[in-house]
Design brief:
Strand order of the largest sheet: 4-3-5-7-1-12-13-16-17
InterPro entries: Class_I_gatase-like
Shape: globular
Number of helices: 10
Bound molecules: 2-acetamido-2-deoxy-beta-D-glucopyranose
Strand content: 25-35%
Protein name: Cyanophycinase
Keywords: Signal
Radius of gyration: 21 Å
Structural class: alpha+beta
């Protein structure tokens, strides 16, 4: 036993310092816990040297903001390193990258949509028209061609460029690497479409979703060595079903979706990754974990998914990616027998893009109630033509934990593991 503990300590101490920061999109400039953590993991204020990498010919809007935050607000040194397809294999650029103690990858790049001819290339779709990014955040949603451009530049045809090799060395040498969670996987990377589009793609149901569902099967930057699909802005944009469908279509069983302005700090990303949820003070956001290995084969085409196993982790929860298990901090207590509500409240817009976090709120309400299941719906619509969807949550085998929320004593924070969902498209005439 003592021997086993010593072994454990040795492994942990070897791993200290390798950290991948998975950002759930729309990271606010004033999110002190996350920015301070990134600087800390890169060596601390005054020591940290952070390279901000974009797939561009020159500096970008988002890169400038990230630099400004690190240098002006959080006490790190930072430089912008623009990398296009030729610079990505330039030894001088790779050496510069390797000299940093931290790397922040931005998806922003030059606006190809502004170029007349690019409108006719397959990389730019009509819905990709650039929108002005919000002022006070980084890792905002960028057009899907930018996401593809980033991956194609750093990892063309699934082969590491010299710059990506250098980024990996920064990690291996004990540095910090950060960026939008969605591009970090070695498994499929989601490019576009909402949950309804994802649910109905390639089924017999007639529908006309506004933004087509698409993902990149060849994977992303592969900065975490585990077969997971990642997504960002998960609860806010109701992306649970889009993540589930991507898993089923790409033959990957597990996924992790991170909420906006939230991060999962992954230690040991290239060996035995363990993540920990970090949020802004006083918020109940977190990470949605899902496992589709018990969903019956053929569910995709039938648009009917049973036995979707899902969990939700909140601030300070740790998560072992390999085992698929959570470790909770002692200040959170099991809810069982101490539920606060009699009834669970269903949502009538469970996959909503407009009302944030319907899935999360409904599931958190169920685990904190005396009921065992709750049935929610997503309403059908005529324009665009979309059938209704029914979503049933069952908590029979789930375990929930609750605590007063640090920084906001009036609210509780709730985590749970092992809830089950059934998702079914309703025929228009049902
Ligand atoms: C890459 O960027 C550099 C510096 O801006 C530029 O000189 C070069 O032409 C670019 N290469 C490509 C392939 O765009
Ligand atoms: C790009 O950003 C760096 C700071 O990281 C700055 O030194 C450089 O002047 C910028 N280049 C341009 C063309 O603005
Ligand atoms: C899916 O993955 C499993 C193992 O992960 C493999 O045995 C199976 O052949 C794969 N199926 C397809 C259709 O790729
Ligand atoms: C908690 O609620 C009380 C009464 O409604 C209010 O005065 C107080 O400001 C709240 N505290 C926080 C941290 O929101």
């Amino acid at each position: 036993m003592i021997y086993a503990n010593l072994m454990f300590l040795t492994c942990v101490s070897l791993a200290v310092g390798q950290n991948l920061v998975l950002i759930g999109g729309n990271l606010r400039n004033n999110n002190l816990p996350v920015w301070n953590m990134m600087v800390e993991l890169a060596g601390g204020p005054g020591v940290a040297r952070i390279g901000v990498i974009s797939a561009s010919n020159s500096n970008t809007t988002e890169g400038d903001r990230v630099i400004n935050n690190f240098v002006r607000l959080y006490g790190a040194n930072a430089i912008e390193i623009a990398v296009n397809e030729s610079l990505a294999n330039n030894i001088l650029v790779a050496n510069l990258v390797q000299k940093q103690t931290g790397i922040f990858i931005v998806e922003d790049s030059e606006d190809k949509a502004a170029n007349f001819w690019d409108r006719f290339t397959s990389l730019v779709r009509p819905n990709d028209t650039p929108v002005r990014p919000p002022n006070d955040v980084v890792c905002y949603e960028s057009a899907s061609y930018k996401r593809q451009n980033l991956i194609d530049t750093l990892r063309p045809s699934g082969m590491d460029s010299l710059v990506l090799t250098a980024i990996r060395k920064v990690l291996n040498n004990g540095g910090m690497v950060a960026g939008n969670a969605a591009v970090m996987s070695k498994s499929a990377v989601i490019l576009g479409g909402d949950s309804v589009a994802a649910l109905l793609t390639g089924t017999l149901f007639i529908s006309s979703p506004r933004v087509p569902f698409s993902f990149r099967k060849a994977g992303g930057l592969a900065l975490i060595d585990t077969d997971y699909v990642f997504d960002s802005q998960l609860s806010e944009k109701g992306r649970e079903v889009r993540l589930i469908r991507t898993l089923l279509d790409s033959n990957v069983s597990r996924g992790l979706g991170i909420d906006e302005n939230t991060a999962v700090i992954v230690s040991n990303p290239l060996l035995q990754p363990v993540g920990k949820v970090l949020t802004e003070m006083g918020t109940t956001s977190g990470a949605f974990y899902v496992d589709v290995s018990n969903v019956p084969v053929g569910a995709g085409a039938a648009a009917s998914y049973d036995n979707v196993d899902f969990s939700f982790f909140t601030v300070d929860d740790s998560f072992d990616f390999t085992a698929g298990k959570a470790i909770y901090p002692t200040w959170k207590k099991e809810i069982f027998g101490q539920e606060q509500f009699n009834k669970a409240v269903p949502s009538d817009d469970i996959l909503s893009l407009a009302l944030p976090a319907q899935w999360r709120q409904t599931a958190v309400g169920l685990i904190n109630s005396n009921e065992m299941s709750v049935t929610s719906y997503s309403a059908p619509s005529i324009v665009p033509l979309i059938p209704g969807v029914q979503v049933v949550f069952d908590r029979t085998r789930a375990v929930g934990l609750r605590a007063r929320l640090p920084g906001n004593s009036n609210a509780s924070v709730v985590s749970f593991q092992g809830m089950s969902a059934s998702i079914k498209v309703l025929r228009i005439l049902d």
